Amino acid sequence: GAVVSQHPSWVICKSGTSVKIECRSLDFQATTMFWYRQFPKQSLMLMATSNEGSKATYEQGVEKDKFLINHASLTLSTLTVTSAHPEDSSFYICSASGTMNTEAFFGQGTRLTVV
Amino acid sequence: AQTVTQSQPEMSVQEAETVTLSCTYDTSESNYYLFWYKQPPSRQMILVIRQEAYKQQNATENRFSVNFQKAAKSFSLKISDSQLGDTAMYFCAFKARLNKLTFGKGITLSVRP
Question: What backbone phi and psi angles, to 5 degrees, belong to A58?
């Protein structure tokens, strides 16, 4: 299967700072990338969908000014958590799919802790 | 809007036994895909099996098979010869035209030695 690499695997940051998470498709062109948030023992909650070269589409209730998503190339999407607060602490997962894919391929996830 | 329901929060099975995980969904779409994903303690999402709605034949991948009942909108996963490495959360998921996945709440499966 195709490989999606997410970096970093874990990050600790101070309240008020911003943190960037990268999601790369290593061996295919990802026309669409998805960003999820997951709390312990719960399901994945879709935050936003991004298509290469266009603005991300955010799910209802997700603050687009807080969670900045950029999908500037067919192999890279980034999620920036701006002015992070402890309540932003969570597990963030990206997934990617190409035009010929029926399935999405997932990154390893990023555990964010805001102190 | 699509919904995916996994009503069992957790299950336990003895090693080498068979277990079935339930999933129902609701949609007005006629063409869609259904998936089962596994999330072990590492939290990496792993695709277990995929079913195209237009195919009547149930998908099978080694010890994993599905019972797809389109009219009943049911999509259960059967794990045969359960192994300790099958211990994980399992998510049922749906995908249609918009290309985004809708996940169920998940079920925690524990395989006992």
Answer: -95, 145
Angle at A75 between CA A72 and CA A77, to 5 degrees: 50
In SS3 terms, chain A reads as: CCCEEEECCEEEECCCCCEEEEEEECCCCCCEEEEEEECCCCCEEEEEEEECCCCCEECCCCCCCCEEEEEEECCEEEEEECCCCHHHCEEEEEEEECCCCCCCEECCCEEEEEC
Model pLDDT for residues A10-54, shown as the tens digit of each residue = 999 999 999 999 999 998 888 899 999 999 999 999 999 998 888
The backbone region for A58, taken as left when phi is positive above 0, alpha when psi lies in -120 to 50, beta otherwise, is beta
Q: Report chain B residues touching chain A, CB-CB < 8 A.
A: 33, 35, 42-45, 47, 50, 52, 89, 91, 95, 99-101, 103-106, 108
* Chain B residues inside the 8 Å CB shell of A104: 95, 101
Write out pLDDT tens, residues B7-55: 999 999 999 999 999 999 999 988 899 999 999 999 999 999 999 999 9
CB contact under 8 A, A43 and B47: no
